């Protein structure tokens, strides 16, 4: 949104660091984040899961205090400290309160007198387009309507800063688009007293559509990897070439290797068996290879087009693409993904050949898979408890990440038939059920 | 309906409460019902204030004319205990959830108490309460209420604590983000969220309480026995006099009372509490209650419920209300305070252990302890065999019913009613049969233990079978899966999680019931099976405190070991493997 008014800072974050977990499995989620939010702007935090965006949002909301660093609210001319309120991905409505009661909740906490409370709540409900639903319970509403309640509840307390945690990601595409447009209309027409909006998202188009400034976060640990100003005038058109170029540019920045990461280990943080692996189904991997191999891409696709075509958000697409890259089945360059010759061969192969190729890639490039297979080969019984590997992984990462990594490798290993896993006994073995 | 929810409504001007519309027909019916209940409460309460000597002038009489009055007194006692349990729950469980240190003690204590027989406490507490109000009936009444309370409070408090700890994190964040004060947060979030589980546990507690009413109304203190007017005393007298008809009357009265409070109190409450179930989609089947529907249609009712709604509003008015959002930071653990607290705990534990061992060892030796362990094993075998037998019988029947929605709908309430019915009322019939055919008490008294608790298996299996997804059943049908394969691969895995819940409840209940079931009497006829239950019952009757303590300790040990080593692993297995993905 083009503003002439001089930008005044609302919130300043400096050197924010935060950890989750304790001791060995401790995970750095935010590393040295500096960020200033100004008046009259919508700022997007774009990043994948594990990039600490939600943690950052909650630090600003006052729901958690970061381990290090400072979150400072800059008082306005009237001397009042900026207030914040939040919209949740899950809506976070109280199922036992009606729409009106839900909206009144924040006012009630501020001990606003009942009459005034009602007037203000009704005004907010009116503004957000919930007229006629005042006495409905949340479970009677559709997802879109519920998020409108969440929005009304957040703006009724007249916050200076509105925090939105992936507010549209639980909604279907059409509903999300309507809500986005409505919110943007309210913002552009200045009908809310909100001075600034901070929105967490993993939808790149959403970020470009709504924000004046986008902060791209890298993951594990979360850092501000890039800051992008969006100068396109509102309302923005998704088909506008400038819009497309910006989307492509952000994809490119998100695929860019962090300079610190060793070249051989792809984009996942950690090295060797300590690599944090995402759980990606082999079906999805094969599907992605086939999609890129076939028309119209013919082996090379832009990530933005691919995301559009497959209706995938970056949180889903990137782990797949990066897994392919790890196994040398694809190459991520700029905003494009290019299949390697091996992958193009894979796309044409039959089931057994695919499995053989996958097994080869797995044993060559995924250290954890190598490790498990080697232990099984060494043992006379060819059996090893999964606990052993889990413990080993937890030396390097949090239990959640360890479980995810082991899950991923178990799934891949089973598909490739390089080892078997028995859930009841919780152990790996070489035996082949035939 | 809205009128009945003090917590679910904002503060409204008083005039709105009293909007002057003509009362309707539903008002009239509800008014009569409520007035009737109020009259009954006053009538029953009158008897409580009288001096103790009245009990000797007016002893319990086996005259059906008095039975409604006795039933009333018993019911009032039950509800008094339930209210006490509710207050205890709200205070203690909240404390445990809010304060980590309090939680460290309260939570394991509740976990143990809810699986431990409380009958033995009776002898200790009666003396205490009679001392509080010497010469008044009130003291004995309180002792009886307390006895019932000890059978009701723990599982309610435990469930409430668990609810408080599992409040959805997003709602928690909303409350903190808006800076809701503790009182407001409790009224808006914690209490509503915990209500459905609490209501369910209150119903379970009420059923459990009946078991103790019978034992708690005829109280022996030293050489004198005080019999409070009530169904329990009536029953005790009928058993002593071998009056068969009187027992029949008592069974009938109990059935009527259970039916009445189920229809007039619990069904409406369950229907009302349905709104607090934490789900974002409207459920297809909502609990229904004619009484609730009736109350909802009334206009006079809000005025009658004014005291309750008023209390809720008063709490919210008095609430200081911060309004200002604060950045919360858990204070860094106070290292010294933490150590001091732990040291204090350790000292207390050592002291308690020392006292118990000293107390028990003064009169008992290791031989006694070993003997009690042997008896406990006997009782354990009984429990295991009976659970297995009950499962063999009720699982097929429950599956059959559960797969037929028409039947399930009709029979589910019956099974729940049977679970609520105090089975010890039926014991005399068993005694007569055993005496008549000269059967071995060691074997034939055993079924009594499971008489009242087997229904938990039945109604959980019914629920499980109705929950087997239709597509699974259709797939099984299409592939021609039947016979043993059908049971092994469709029915049993489908009901297993539910079955474990039912069997766990049934097994806990059976341990408790063994105290009453292993030693029964009919007139002068006393039958006894050797087991831990009979041991505790005998020691209680003889006032042999060390033996009561030893027996209860061993039983607690067995019940807890049972839960930890058998049921919890089974439960974890069911959760992990047998829930549909």
Question: What can you see in these coordinates?
Answer:
The complex is a heterodimer of chains A (434) and B (581). Chain A has helices at 53-61, 99-109, 114-127, 143-155, 173-188, 204-210, 241-255, 282-293, 303-310, 314-326, 341-348, 351-365, 367-378, 386-394, 399-416, and strands at 9-20, 27-38, 41-46, 68-73, 84-87, 161-165, 196-201, 213-218, 223-229, 300-302, 330-333, 336-339, 383-385, 420-422, 427-429. Chain A is of the alpha/beta class and 434 residues long. Chain A has 2 domains: 9-255, P-loop containing nucleotide triphosphate hydrolases (Rossmann fold, 3-Layer(aba) Sandwich), CATH 3.40.50; 273-429. In chain A, strand 14 (420-422) and strand 15 form a beta hairpin. The longest helix of chain A has 18 residues, at 399-416. By secondary structure, chain B is an all-alpha fold. Chain B has helices at 14-17, 25-46, 53-57, 67-98, 100-113, 121-132, 137-165, 169-177, 182-217, 231-241, 244-273, 290-297, 301-304, 306-318, 335-363, 366-402, 405-420, 427-437, 441-444, 446-451, 454-466, 470-478, 483-517, 532-542, 545-577, and strands spanning 218-221, 224-227, 519-522, 525-528. In chain B, the strands form 2 sheets. Chain B has a two-stranded antiparallel ribbon. A two-stranded antiparallel sheet of chain B has the order 3-4. In chain B, helix 4 crosses helix 11 (244-273), helix 6 crosses helix 7 and helix 9 runs antiparallel to helix 11. The longest helix of chain B has 37 residues, at 366-402. Classes of the chains: A alpha/beta (434), B mainly alpha (581).
């Amino acid at each position: 949104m083009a503003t002439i008014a001089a930008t005044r800072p609302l919130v300043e974050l400096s050197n924010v660091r935060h950890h989750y977990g304790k001791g060995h499995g401790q995970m750095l989620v935010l590393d040295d984040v500096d960020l200033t939010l100004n008046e009259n702007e919508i700022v997007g935090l774009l990043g994948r899961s594990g990039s600490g965006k939600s943690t950052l949002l909650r630090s600003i909301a006052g729901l958690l205090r970061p381990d290090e660093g400072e979150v400072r609210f800059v008082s306005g001319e009237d001397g009042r400290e900026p207030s914040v309120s939040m919209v949740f991905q899950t809506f976070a409505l109280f199922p036992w309160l009606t729409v009106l009661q839900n909206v009144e909740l924040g006012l009630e906490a501020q001990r606003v007198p009942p009459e005034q409370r009602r007037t203000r709540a009704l005004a907010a409900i009116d503004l957000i387009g919930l007229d006629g639903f005042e006495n409905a319970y949340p479970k009677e509403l559709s997802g879109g309507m519920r998020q409108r309640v969440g929005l009304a509840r957040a703006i009724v307390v007249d916050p200076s800063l509105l925090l939105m945690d992936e507010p549209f990601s639980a909604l279907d595409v059409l509903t999300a688009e309507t809500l986005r447009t409505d919110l943007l209309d309210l913002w552009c027409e200045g009908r809310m007293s909100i001075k600034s909006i901070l929105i967490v998202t993993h939808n790149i188009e959403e970020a470009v559509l709504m924000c004046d400034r986008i902060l791209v976060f890298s993951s594990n640990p979360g850092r501000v990897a890039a800051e992008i100003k969006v100068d396109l005038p509102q309302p923005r058109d998704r088909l506008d070439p400038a819009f497309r170029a910006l989307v492509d540019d952000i994809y490119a920045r998100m695929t860019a290797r962090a300079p610190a990461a060793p070249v051989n280990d792809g984009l996942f943080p950690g090295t060797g068996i300590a690599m944090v692996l995402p759980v990606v189904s082999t079906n999805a991997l094969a599907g992605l290879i086939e999609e890129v191999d076939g028309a119209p891409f013919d082996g090379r696709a832009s990530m933005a087009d691919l995301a559009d075509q497959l209706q995938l958000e970056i949180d889903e697409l990137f782990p797949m693409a990066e897994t392919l890259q790890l196994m040398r089945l694809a190459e991520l360059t700029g905003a494009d993904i290019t299949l390697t010759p091996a992958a193009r061969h894979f796309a044409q192969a039959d089931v057994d050949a695919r499995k053989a190729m996958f097994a080869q890639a797995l044993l060559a490039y995924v250290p954890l898979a190598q490790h498990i297979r080697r232990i099984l080969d060494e043992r006379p019984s060819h059996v090893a408890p999964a606990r052993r590997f889990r413990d080993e992984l937890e030396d390097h990462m949090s239990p959640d990440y360890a479980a995810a990594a082991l899950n991923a490798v178990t799934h891949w290993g089973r598909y490739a038939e390089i080892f078997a896993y028995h859930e009841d006994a919780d152990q790996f073995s070489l035996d082949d059920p035939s | 309906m809205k009128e009945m929810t003090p917590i679910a409504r904002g503060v409204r001007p008083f005039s709105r409460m009293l909007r002057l519309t003509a009362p309707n027909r539903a008002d009239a019916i509800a008014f009569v019902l409520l007035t009737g209940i109020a009259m009954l409460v006053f009538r029953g309460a009158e008897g409580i204030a009288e001096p103790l000597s009245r009990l000797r002038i007016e002893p319990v009489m086996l005259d059906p004319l008095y039975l409604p009055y006795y039933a009333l007194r018993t019911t009032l006692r039950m509800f008094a205990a339930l209210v006490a349990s509710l207050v205890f729950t709200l205070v203690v469980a909240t404390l445990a959830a809010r304060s980590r240190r309090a939680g460290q003690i309260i939570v394991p204590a509740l976990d143990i108490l809810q699986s431990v027989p409380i009958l033995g406490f009776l002898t200790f507490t009666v003396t205490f309460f009679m001392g509080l109000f010497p010469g008044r009936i009130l003291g004995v009444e309180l002792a009886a209420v307390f006895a019932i309370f000890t059978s009701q409070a723990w599982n309610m408090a435990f469930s409430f604590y668990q609810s408080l700890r599992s409040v959805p994190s997003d709602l928690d964040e909303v409350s903190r983000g808006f800076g809701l004060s503790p009182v407001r947060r409790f009224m808006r979030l914690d209490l509503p969220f915990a209500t459905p589980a609490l209501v369910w546990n209150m119903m379970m507690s009420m059923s459990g309480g009946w078991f103790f009413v019978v034992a708690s109304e005829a109280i022996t203190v030293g050489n004198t026995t005080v019999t409070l007017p009530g169904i329990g005393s009536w029953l005790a007298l009928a058993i002593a006099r071998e009056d068969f008809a009187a027992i029949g009357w008592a069974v009938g009265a109990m059935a009527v009372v259970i039916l009445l409070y189920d229809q007039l109190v619990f069904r409406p409450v369950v229907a009302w509490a349905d709104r607090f179930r934490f789900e974002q989609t409207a459920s297809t089947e909502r609990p229904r209650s004619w009484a609730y529907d009736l109350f909802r249609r009334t206009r006079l009712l809000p005025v009658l419920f004014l005291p309750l709604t008023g209390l809720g509003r008063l709490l919210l008015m008095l609430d200081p209300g911060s309004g200002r959002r604060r950045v919360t930071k858990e204070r860094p653990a106070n290292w010294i305070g933490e150590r001091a607290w732990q040291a204090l705990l350790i000292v207390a534990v050592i002291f308690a252990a020392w006292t118990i061992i000293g107390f028990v060892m003064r009169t008992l030796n290791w031989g006694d302890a070993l003997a009690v362990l042997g008896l406990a094993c006997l009782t354990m075998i009984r429990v295991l065999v009976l659970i297995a037998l009950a499962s063999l019988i009720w699982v097929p029947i429950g599956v059959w019913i559960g797969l037929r929605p028409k039947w399930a709908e009709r029979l589910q309430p019956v099974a729940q009613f049977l679970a609520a019915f105090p089975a010890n009322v039926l014991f005399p019939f068993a005694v007569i049969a055993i005496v008549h055919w000269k059967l071995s008490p060691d074997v034939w008294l055993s079924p009594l233990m499971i008489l009242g608790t087997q229904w938990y298996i039945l109604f959980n299996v019914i629920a499980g079978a109705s929950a087997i997804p239709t597509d699974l059943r259709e797939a099984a049908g299409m592939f021609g899966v039947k016979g043993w394969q059908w049971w092994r691969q469709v029915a049993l895995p489908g009901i297993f999680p539910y079955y474990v819940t039912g069997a766990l409840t049934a097994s806990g209940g059976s341990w408790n019931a063994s105290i009453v079931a292993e030693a029964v009497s009919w007139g002068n006829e006393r039958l006894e099976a050797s087991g831990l239950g009979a041991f505790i019952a005998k020691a209680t009757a003889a006032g042999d405190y060390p033996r009561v303590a030893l027996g209860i300790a061993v039983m607690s040990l067995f019940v807890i070991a049972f839960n930890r080593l058998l049921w919890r692993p089974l439960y974890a297995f069911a959760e992990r493997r047998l829930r549909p993905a």
